[in-house]
Design brief:
Number of strands: 4
Order of helices and strands: EEEEH
Structural class: alpha+beta
Strand content: 15-25%
Helix content: 10-25%
Radius of gyration: 13 Å
């Protein structure tokens, strides 16, 4: 597997709480966190879009206590 081009969220801090995403040639998207980079979630762009739309709409705000 070739190296992935991980992109860090602009909302991540400089050294902690970083979220990274990478597009893969098979059409999937991979997501990882800086504190445990060995754990990688693989999803489809359409599912990631649904999650991001929900976050932007505030559907998960109650989880940010």
């Amino acid at each position: 597997m070739s190296a992935l081009n991980w992109q860090k969220s602009s909302y991540s801090s400089e050294s902690v709480n970083c979220l990274y995403v990478a597009a893969v040639s098979d059409g999937t998207v991979k997501i990882r966190e800086s504190d445990d980079p060995g754990v990688v979630i693989t999803t489809l762009p359409s599912k990631l879009r649904t999650l991001l739309d929900g976050v932007k709409a505030g559907e998960f705000d109650h989880l940010m206590a």
